[in-house]
Design goal:
Layout (H helix, E strand, L loop, with lengths): L2 H7 L25 H8 L14 H14 L3 E5 L2 H10 L7 E5 L4 H13 L3 E5 L5 H6 L4 E7 L11 H11 L4 E5 L4 H4 L2 H4 L3 E5 L13 E5 L1 H14 L5 H11 L2 H20 L4 E5 L9 H7 L6 E6 L2 H11 L4 E2 L9 E3 L11 H6 L6 E5 L5 H13 L3
Parallel strand pairs: 2-3, 2-4, 4-5, 5-6, 10-11
Antiparallel strand pairs: 1-7, 6-7, 8-9, 9-12, 11-12
Helix pairs in contact: 3-11, 12-16, 14-16
The structure holds pyridoxal-5'-phosphate.
């Protein structure tokens, strides 16, 4: 079956009630047919649900679908994207271990690496995506993981996954390559196909796609997921059955939604590039993107996020955002509704100006999460706001 079909047809086995759509399993625990079955499930001799902190039919269905889409062996679902990203570190790293991370990563992930993990003896080094040679220079004998996002938020810089998984992985096979694939989604980009070990996601974004629930997932090599299982069982960041049920339904329409997000975003990017009040536009599938060829190689479409720099800095950025009539100002992304964000004053306000500029965020930068509205309405709102922003 093709991936669109699998996302619809992967389903928890029907109960004796013969339901068509998977029911919601709101149960904290599960019963055993007899004492012997309880013993065997606890001993890992047979598979079975024990307690919803460990597994639940709804979370299993959601995980199975993401594994199908990412081409992963196994996975674990979490209460939020940050719980997933945190577990992908904390479930595998020990005191003394070192992480090499690309600089342009999600704000809370940056806080983990720079503030929380050093307290536990886990250190990290940041590198810039535009200097691939920096990666090898940053690797030490203690390096256990390489972490990155591609495309990055909000600068939309890319990391060459094929290069990473051939050149670097061959030389350092023991280093775990961990990719946050939230911006692209597995529909547009499949890091595991290149040899990446782990993929993490905020399911809050495109997987839900309608701005309703938080969720996270980590998928990848079976032995790594097994190692992380200890962490999820004993620390309890599990996804709720309700969120898993909703997210599994949402995945049925992920390909359809992403096709529309991408075609709308490309139109927005092209329109912005032609506007005289705009200094620069970044979108992976615009030929002006410095890594356009790489984007075409490792992504099937350019994604739903467009970042641009308005002429006149924060002053005009504010005028633009306030002039929008349909598009609302929020820090979220990946919603059916288009959203405008000013990263320098909100999501990335904790970074210094020079840290922001090193990852392509300027006072006039605006990130647009292009939604599923009719493209004519999106373009009309952005053009009228641009006119009022000078
Ligand atoms: C939103 C986001 C996260 C965190 O996810 P939550 O569900 O908000 O906890 C992590 N990485 C990226 C790239 C994100 O966009």
């Amino acid at each position: 079956m093709k991936q669109e079909t699998k996302l619809i047809r992967t389903q928890t086995p029907r109960t004796q009630n013969r339901e068509h759509s998977t029911p919601l399993y709101l149960t904290s625990s599960f019963v055993f047919d007899d004492a012997e079955q309880g013993r065997a499930i606890f001993a890992d001799e047979i598979e079975g649900n024990i307690y919803s902190r460990y597994s639940n039919p709804n979370t299993t269905e959601f995980i199975d679908k993401v594994c199908e889409l990412e081409g992963a062996e196994d996975g674990l679902a979490f209460a939020s994207g940050m719980a997933a990203v945190f577990a992908s570190f904390a479930g595998l790293l020990n005191s003394g271990d070192h992480v090499v991370a690309y600089r342009a990563i999600f704000g809370s992930t940056h806080q983990l690496l720079t503030t929380l993990f050093p307290r536990w003896g886990i250190t990290s080094t940041y590198i810039d995506a535009e200097n691939p040679a920096d990666l090898e220079a940053a690797i030490t004998p203690a390096t256990k993981m390489i972490f990155l996002e591609t495309p990055s938020n909000p600068g939309l810089e890319l990391v060459d996954l094929e290069w990473l998984c051939t050149t670097i992985k061959q030389k350092y096979p023991h280093i775990i390559i961990n990719v946050d694939n939230c911006f692209a989604t597995p529909y547009l980009q499949k890091p595991i196909a290149y040899g990446v070990d782990l993929v993490s996601h905020s399911a809050t974004k495109y997987m839900d796609g309608q701005g309703r629930v938080l969720g996270g997932i980590v998928v990848g090599k079976k032995e790594l997921i097994k190692e992380m299982l200890f962490f999820i069982r004993h620390t309890g960041p599990a996804m709720s059955a309700f969120n898993a049920w909703l997210l599994s339904k949402s995945l049925e329409t992920l390909p359809l939604r992403m096709d529309r997000h991408c075609s709308n975003a490309l139109s927005v990017a092209q329109m912005l590039e032609a506007n005289e009040n705009v200094e620069l536009v970044r979108y992976p599938f615009l030929p002006s993107h410095p890594q356009y060829n790489l984007a075409k190689k490792q992504m099937t479409q350019g994604g739903g996020i467009v970042t641009f720099i308005i002429k006149g800095g924060f002053n005009n950025a504010k005028k633009f955002m306030d002039a929008l009539e349909m598009i609302l100002i929020s820090s979220n992304l990946g919603d059916s509704r288009s959203i405008a964000t000013h990263p320098a004053s909100t999501t990335h306000s904790k970074l210094s100006e020079s840290e922001r500029e090193s990852i392509g965020i300027f006072a006039g930068s605006i990130r647009v999460s292009v939604g599923l509205e009719n493209i004519d309405d999106i373009l009309a709102d952005i053009s009228q706001a641009l006119q009022k922003s000078v």
